[in-house]
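Folding Task

Wanted — backbone structure
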Amino acid sequence: MATGRTTATFLPPVMEARRWLQGVDFPPNRPLINVSQAAPVDPPPEDLCKVIAEAAINQPEAHLYGPVLGLPELRTEVAKQWNVAYGGTLMPDNIAITSGCNQAFCATIASLCSDHDEVILPTPWYFNHKMWLDMSGITTVPLKTGTDLLPDPIAADALITDKTRAIVLVTPNNPGGVEYPSELVQAFYDLAQRRGIKLVIDETYRDFDARSGAPHNLFQDTDWDTTLIQLYSFSKAFRLTGHRVGAITAATALLSEIEKFLDTVTICPNQLGQIAAVWGMQNLSHWLAGERDEILDRRAAIHDNFHKLEAKGWQLLGCGAYFAYVQHPFAKPSDEVARDLVREAGVLMLPGTMFHPDNEPRASREFRVAFANVDRVQIGELFDRLAQLNWPLAPRVDSA
């Protein structure tokens, strides 16, 4: 029987949820509505697929080991575009390319923390962050959010100890969907700077932020690299999920430490994926703008249809990027409701118990709705199905 570090954490939530589908039939007139996972299911645009195919055929070096920290042309392009977007003065040496954003997080934590160090995560949290901290022997310190799903810097300050190494923020947020205001991000940066810890900001969903302009001004600080580490994913922007391409923006000295981790784990990121990412950044800005418009329309569809559920006691706690985060009205806890939804409503979505510490009361009332792969019509159908449920109700309480 396994007794290693993996036993310190839970099973992958998305894989667990998929097992709930086993043995369940979905009739043609009521197909499954899957809002459990945010990863795009469509392939990249055709022109990008051709770039990948041509590189596979005509660039023999694309099949060999490449630089551990990524192709120079991609690191240069990220630095260039980030400087335009954030008003910074980043250099290519501030950028590392990773095998997806999850690896970016793992490598960052490995470079910052040792056994029994502490990392502060706002709740509800992104479960893979919690899983890696568990498997690394690092203590996760939950930072509770209120009904607005925004973390409080003052509350975070009270949680910092001599073992705290970092605060992690995800904005736009997974699972909550909320976009952290620039002033809030700045307040966390100031806190981390003052307390001598790192602020790790996962901006996987930055391309689908509803706001125009930079979501924060942190890269404009000449000393940003003493405090800030930014994570990013090309998977959502260009539908490159299977190619596993992410990025870290950080101090060059920290990237030298991160290089040790990356060389040991994957040696180098996927070269074909990196070639695709460079070409996408240079040629697909208009296409990506269209993708953003579609996601924003689906976000609007959540708001347009939510009145159907509001009348039944549901509450919309957060909505943005790929996610809505909701409170259900039923007497059963969300992990039980989730299984019932598969059988009785043909709906697969993840319960709040997957995004909170064990025994957190509010988790039993919450759900994440990942709407990136359902269009406006399907969102309407989703809410119609949920509104038709006549299950026993719980006493009405606030989510906070």
About this structure: Residues 74 and 278 are 5 Å apart (CA to CA).
